[in-house]
Each structure stands twice: as C-alpha cells, then as structure tokens.
C-alpha cells in the first residue's frame, strides 16, 4: 500500500563478475548516486570470462560464481536490491 522509488541499472555479461576490489568500488559508487536496484543480465549466455558457465555450457564456473556472490554481498551491504 506504500509507494517505493526504484532507480536501477543493468549489468551485462562480464560486468556481473568484477574482482573483489572492483565490486566494492562499484557498489559504493552506485550507492553514492542513489541506485537501489540492479538487474543482472546475460550472465548465463556465454562461457567464462564473459559468462557464468564453463566452456561446456552446462556447468557453472566456480570462480565466476564466487565473484558474482561477492558483488551481490557488496550491493546488499549498501541497501541495493
């Protein structure tokens, strides 16, 4: 029953898998500019490093998953959904 305001961005392909240092900087910058919503797009359409999958296109690359997980944790820490 309450209104909410969403100001979001779209992350595509390799942008979903930044290094830990970059994830912290990206999340902080998004929060600084009032971004509160992120869409993760096209992360499963290509093989690593641009995508989440290994070359066989059937299994997840654990290193890419770890990077994505850390990025999501940094966004969550700053109130970004």
Keywords:
2 strands; alpha+beta
Blueprint of the fold:
Layout: E1 8-12, H1 20-32, E2 37-41, H2 62-77
Parallel strand pairs: 1-2
* Topology, number of strands: 2
Indicate the percent of residues in helices: 25-40%
Q: What's the order of the H and E elements?
A: EHEH
Radius of gyration: 14 Å
- What's the tally of helices? 2
Which regions have little confidence, pLDDT < 50, spanning 5+ residues? none
Roughly how many Å apart are the termini?
20 Å
- Class inferred from helices and paired strands: alpha+beta
| Strand fraction | 5-15%
Instruction: Specify the biggest β-sheet.
Output: 2 strands, parallel
Shape: elongated
Strand order of the largest sheet: 1-2
**Please, what is the average pLDDT?**
95
Q: Can you describe this structure?
A:
This protein has 81 residues and is α+β, with helices and mostly antiparallel strands. The chain contains two helices and two strands; from the N terminus they run βαβα. It has helices spanning 20-32, 62-77; strands at residues 8-12, 37-41. Strands 1-2 form a two-stranded parallel sheet. Helix 1 links the parallel strand 1 and strand 2 (37-41). Helix 1 runs parallel beside helix 2. The radius of gyration is 14 Å and the shape is elongated. The model has no long low-confidence stretch (mean pLDDT 95).
């Amino acid at each position: 029953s309450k209104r909410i305001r969403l100001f979001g961005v779209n992350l595509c392909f390799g942008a979903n898998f930044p290094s830990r240092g970059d994830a912290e900087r990206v999340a902080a910058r998004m929060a600084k500019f009032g971004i509160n919503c992120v869409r993760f797009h096209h992360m499963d359409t290509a093989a690593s490093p641009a995508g989440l999958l290994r070359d066989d296109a059937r299994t997840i690359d654990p290193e890419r998953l770890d990077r994505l997980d850390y990025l999501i944790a940094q966004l969550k820490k700053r109130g970004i959904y």
